[in-house]
DNA sequence: ATAGGGTTAG
């Protein structure tokens, strides 16, 4: 083995491969290698040292180590060596060590910086949000006549994207045209498109794209994503279909795009097309698909994606993003147990995983679990963000935990340095309102330091419905009619509040407002998945279902049995001034009751009946289903527009508070 | 070297 290393060391340094030797001047070729060349030996030593320094830098894990090596760099006379210095900057960048002054120091010592060193600095500063420094380096570089490379511009455009400075971007864009050769550099152009798209100047991005003599997949994908982010899926789809050769990233951009733009069915459709065309998928694709399934909220899709994840051999425990997406999906598909299982097995958990899980618990009414998890994440050092607090506060709000909620709200700024946003205030108004402190909730809405939005007044209006307070409702509704004049739900809520207070004239007035605006009531709709796996829809008051006769029989039967144990239809849930008899008839054809009847007929007794609903459940349906879960001993899970109700044994997981 | 990813209130 010693022999082998000996063999390597005898390869002459000045060895010139044969195919190149003919290009060399004759003299050099014919000159015999002198037995000793002090200079080249020194060179040799120097390059040895250089590579030692480089590999030492590669092994660095802390700033101290880097500083030690830097000292060595200076000691050995490498303070002008761009190669080593570039490496140093890149390591600092990679390790996210703030280089506000450190890198500048390095830069100032170098007399003849090369483009790579300058570019590494620009990029490093940019990634640390020090865009001014990036631009400074660029101007220094122009002053010293260092010619930029493509990557210089790319880094600069990225920097402009970071600080939202389109003017600067435009300026530099101009320079790419002036400074030789970059006007047509595809890499530079792609970075430019990315910048414009990121800053919302989609038209400029498009112009750059259209003027390109040739484009690559990356230019196309960037623009597609631009349209996706702008919510224009039609243009995105058009571009995508024109794309001559599509790869996984482009496909994924479309799948994710549909998911992000609330078109989950299209997302799944694209995903299936993608599979059919034999395009590879990876975890990024899956995240988009999982998110689409979450939006559909059907257990069927949760199971479907579970199989896909398993068949593709992805381990959701490994990838924190996939795991977090799964937590959200399982929660939204009604199985907080599965969500927690997914959470439990994740190897790495971050603020997303915790926030999703907390929101999942909150959604299902497990406030204590949500709070416990919150404290756990704080304890193990994961810093909550503003989304986390939304979850925690909703959890408190849905469980009447006013004091805990208040404390957490106050701790946001004090302990975690997150100043509450409008949405947090709306959680607080909700928390107070649900607990019946309407005056205090109103006061908070009126005195909060931020401009209250629809969420704030909407929460208050909702609380007024729960506690039948038409006066405060009127205040909240007036704000809402201004902020969201076309949101039908607000008019309906207000009219219901007036109705339950018997203020029928006011009801008529609200109706008139709705008519004048041309707003029509959103019909109540529920759906469930049948035994055969078909989604069946039920509309309130709809008697045209083929099995309506049987369903009606079931409901009447249930009604009688429930009345026998003390249930009374809740007439307050009907906002029409009609006879009690008529109210009872309307109540019994609410869509969730129809779905429930169908579910009892169709679904085997061992399985829960899962119903989804487009609007909030009324009081009457809630107590009716509570009763049904008791007398039939069935588990019934209803998802309304914002949360889940698990009915079991006469009780609901929301504790009659939602 | 450049393109695609998860959590949010009434």
Keywords:
DYW domain-containing protein, TPR-like_helical_dom_sf, 35 helices, 6-stranded mixed beta sheet, 65% helix, DNA-binding, disordered N terminus, 658 residues, elongated, E2_motif, RNA binding, PPR_rpt, mainly alpha
Plain-language structure description:
The protein is mainly alpha-helical and 658 residues long. α29 runs antiparallel to α30. The protein has a 6-stranded mixed beta sheet, with helices on one face. α35 links the parallel β3 and β4 (636-639). The protein contains 35 helices and 6 strands. Helices cover 65% and strands 4% of the residues. It binds one DNA strand of 10 nucleotides through α10, α12, α14, α16 and α18. Pfam families: DYW_deaminase (PF14432), E_motif (PF20431), Eplus_motif (PF20430), PPR (PF01535), PPR_2 (PF13041). Residues 566-658 form the DYW domain. Keywords: Repeat. Belongs to the PPR family. PCMP-H subfamily.
Could you outline the blueprint of secondary structure elements for this entry?
Blueprint: H1 2-9, H2 18-21, H3 26-30, H4 38-58, H5 63-75, H6 82-94, H7 102-109, H8 115-127, H9 131-143, H10 150-163, H11 166-178, H12 186-198, H13 202-211, H14 217-229, H15 233-242, H16 248-260, H17 264-276, H18 283-296, H19 299-311, H20 320-332, H21 336-345, H22 351-363, H23 367-379, H24 386-397, H25 402-416, H26 422-434, H27 438-447, H28 454-466, H29 470-483, H30 488-500, H31 504-516, E1 525-529, E2 535-539, H32 548-564, H33 580-588, H34 591-602, E3 609-613, H35 619-632, E4 636-639, E5 644-648, E6 651-652
Parallel strand pairs: 3-4
Antiparallel strand pairs: 1-2, 1-3, 4-5, 5-6
This protein binds one DNA strand of 10 nucleotides through helix 10, helix 12, helix 14, helix 16 and helix 18.
